[in-house]
Amino acid sequence: MADTLQTAPDFSGWSCPLPLRDHPVVVMGHGGGGALSAELVRHLFLPAYGGEQLEGLGDSAQLTLGGARLAFSTDSYVVRPLFFPGGSIGDLAVNGTVNDLAMSGAVPAYLSCAFVLEEGTELATVGAVAQAVGAAARAAGVTVATGDTKVVDAGHGDGVYLTTAGIGLIPDGVDIRPQRARPGDVIMVSGPIGQHGIAIMSVREGLEFGAEVTSDTAALGSLVQAMLAVTPELHVLRDPTRGGLAASLNEIAAASGTGVVLEDRAVPVPEAVANACAFLGLDPLYVANEGRLVAFVPREHAEAVLAAMRAHPDGRGTVIVGECVADHPGVVVARTGLGGTRIVDLPLGEQLPRIC
């Protein structure tokens, strides 16, 4: 018992809107990509694992092996329901891992895929998910090279959970990571936000918002390569999944020690998403996306990169939404339509749990 107590996490130094030292149990917000997730990673997992590779906390780790620069990422998918407008847990898992690799500028190459199946799940359902995995991998130009299958007791899962990992090669001269954001960078978003989270919520809760909202899930490797063909001097790329655009911008600002100014009216929010968020009391900036990226681009390259993104099928809706500044380091602010400003903080947890 003494050894166990000595190696347990020390909660005394933790700081969080919900002090974890007073609530030492897992809550749904720990998986939401917000402040609770960050606290858990920084104070529990990083000290336990050690190693400088983890300190970057990017979408994927950037490694050197045998002279090659690799991006390596892993993720688990527990989305409910398994099938939703615009996609399924199968293509979501492939696209999510491909995108994590692409956000390092890597060319995704190989994936692993592990299935955790609940006893009693129909094999037709498992087969449909597997087919979606294969189709998404082929569309993204990657190979599922290995995998695993486990079964848990009935009542201890939601049919199918997936865990994927991926590797890809980072081209020479490419250095994309959150720490490289610089004052003067132009901030772009590759299309309308909030569609994935609202698509999941509409099916899960049986809600209608005047028009069907479909998930934006897509593999963005090809879009990133089109951007790099313009210039390798992209500073930061991020796919704003859990916690939405707000979480991604806050993480980049904190990692780089810069400020972010967001133009509220420039952020592309589809009418159906805006209506759904108004009805549900949500802020679209915090709603998850699965087929969008946010880019910090040096101002001298912004016009050419913007044109290349708009010429690509996955970037037709790209818009400039703000800039990186030297003021208020680590803080994201939004200019409102009325001429004022508001702080866009890191979310505590996830407004819509289990959306990926």
TrEMBL record:
Organism domain of life: Bacteria
GO biological process terms held by the UniProt record: protein maturation
All copies of domain PurM-like C-terminal, residue ranges: 182-331
Xref: Gene3D superfamilies: PurM-like C-terminal domain (3.90.650.10), PurM-like, N-terminal domain (3.30.1330.10)
Domain spans labelled PurM-like N-terminal: 59-170
Family according to the record: Belongs to the HypE family.
PANTHER family (alphabetical): CARBAMOYL DEHYDRATASE HYPE, HYDROGENASE ISOENZYMES FORMATION PROTEIN HYPE
Name the record gives this protein: Hydrogenase expression/formation protein HypE
Organism for this UniProt entry: Kitasatospora aureofaciens
